[in-house]
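Notebook B, p. 112. Complex prediction, attempt 2.
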Amino acid sequence: MEIKVLRNILGANEQLANKNRELLDSNGVFTVNVMSSPGAGKTSLILQTIKRLKGELRIGVIEGDVSSSLDAEAVGKEGVPVIQINTDGGCHLDANMLQNALANMPLADIDLLFIENVGNLICPADFVLGEHKKVVVASVPEGHDKPYKYPRMFNEADAVLMNKIDLLPYLDFNREEFYRAIKAIKGSAEIIELACTTGQGVEDWLDWLTAQMKK
Amino acid sequence: MHEMAITENILNIALEKAEGADARRIVKVNLVIGKLTGVVEECVGFYFDFMSRDTIAEKAVLNITMVPTRVKCRVCGADFALGEYDWTCPGCGGSSIEIISGKELFVESIEVE
């Protein structure tokens, strides 16, 4: 006997993500899910943002890593609330992990929450967490072809942050190709060029981010 | 690695439905998976065999229909398969596309005894 099911395999995750979103909304916490491959500059982006906005906004960070608390320690030095999630081999964060982390975050005292996902351009794209915006950091040394190789991830992006532009003179990175691919797969995504370690272009990112928060 | 989480969900959905129908055994699970999800068919099969042990889904056949990635040109409306390194519309040369298939990830049905 055949039984029709027609059920989304990740439906349970999506239901939990909706609950997370309700919790975040009820506390007025604007949440950004930051995704990229390992080493593209997610932590540097978050650190730069904290440094620039610390006086204006109360920021919190949830760090997702396979193991270690190196990123949480770096962010913690900035004096903001931070929680480390270790996935113990898992390649992405899911809504359940976020729910547990949120329970330990002082949400009433946070305006802007960053979720630094596990460095990976594949799996995190499939798992919504309850965030308001998704940003993908794509650094110049990775090459301009990344959107072609990971279309699903770039299709999810509300903004693509082209990081490490200070290295452009030394690399064979075709900016035009990169823009063309992103415009094709996600025409509405904002492309922001920056270098998180030097601070170049960070203002553009902050302008975009604060504009999204006001919406 | 996300195949493990996905397989766990597949098994839960199948068991819940089968128990709801008072089935003794799940013979087959029919899945629809889009290419863009990056889910590897073989991995799902491997995890399923392992996770379904000692449940009524043990030895059930996983029948996976893979859905290719297709996109639609936002300029002229033509639909075409997503190329590897060129996303230009073959019809009009437009460069803005919308994904119309390839993101599927659902349990279509189960076959039970």
